[in-house]
What we know:
A hairpin with a 3-residue loop joins β6 and β7. The chain has 3 domains: 1-79, Trypsin Inhibitor V, Chain A (2-Layer Sandwich); 92-160, Trypsin Inhibitor V, Chain A (2-Layer Sandwich), CATH 3.30.10.20; 164-254, Immunoglobulins (Immunoglobulin-like, Sandwich), CATH 2.60.40. Helix content is 17%, strand content 36%. By secondary structure, it is α+β, with helices and mostly antiparallel strands. The chain is elongated. The strands form 7 sheets. Strands 14, 16, 17, 19, 20 and 21 form a 6-stranded mixed sheet that branches. A 3-stranded mixed sheet has the order 2-5-3, with helices on one face. It has a 3-stranded mixed sheet with strand order 9-12-10. It has helices at residues 22-31, 104-113, 256-284; strands spanning 11-13, 35-42, 52-56, 62-64, 68-74, 84-85, 89-90, 93-95, 117-124, 134-138, 144-146, 150-156, 164-167, 172-176, 181-188, 195-201, 210-211, 219-222, 231-238, 243-245, 249-254. It contains 3 helices and 21 strands.
Amino acid sequence: MNLVISTGPCDTVVPNVVGMEQSSVETAITNAGLVVGTVTQQCSNTIPAGIVMSQSPTGGTFVLWGTTIDIVISSGLCQEGEGTLEGEGTIEYWIVPNIIGFSQSDARNLIESADLVVGMMTQQCSDEIPIDYVINQNPPAGQQIPIGNPVNIMVTSGPCTTLDAWIDGPGYIVKIVGDNLELKVIVVGAHGDVVYQWYFSRAKNLKSPELIVGANTDTFYIEELQLEDSGFYWCQIADDYDVIDTPFVQLHVITGLNLHINYILILGIIITTSLILARKRYQHN
């Protein structure tokens, strides 16, 4: 027998009911698996009676199944005496514009065009939304607030993941004159288009680096290496937000004669060690 265990209530998306008639709101909310909560009324000189002016939570928010959605309904034109504070006369209201998804400069223009002011601005990283775009606002769009009141906004500060890169393979490479060299860059956390540029330096302190003309892909290749190709190689990586350098790779190019001498030295060490061990065994016997 197979058992299916409930993990609890599922998430659902809050429908956007701002601008809808009150008669249609309950259907939209209940069809989403949610419940109509507190219904309040507020006068408006711009929104017809019976139209939803604002809601909480806002449309597009993920909430648990069965969550209550509070709405504010326009009661029609404000009557004399409504929307006033003692000794201050009539307060004029304006609808908060929707600024989510707009650039910071465009959002500011929309807020000021509504005779409101930009309030507190906070930042949050995002891997999907470009830097300096609005991802949240308070009060929410559609709500009526007095003219001159602030609208707080949250804008993106850039990606949450950071750019990183390295050259695949060992950090020290020995090649013989005439061999070929291939270096490849591994890049993670890039955002947007990636630009590559390879560099070379003969000194370990990487002073006076030489830009390798035409080496602007993720793979760098040299055919028939020469002694003068010995040195330090690295790649500079740039995306839409950052510029970094990979750790360098040191290349040591030697001649076949040097390699032959090294083999002879190693062979000599092996033979000498063998003779010493044989002599010790003979003396022991």
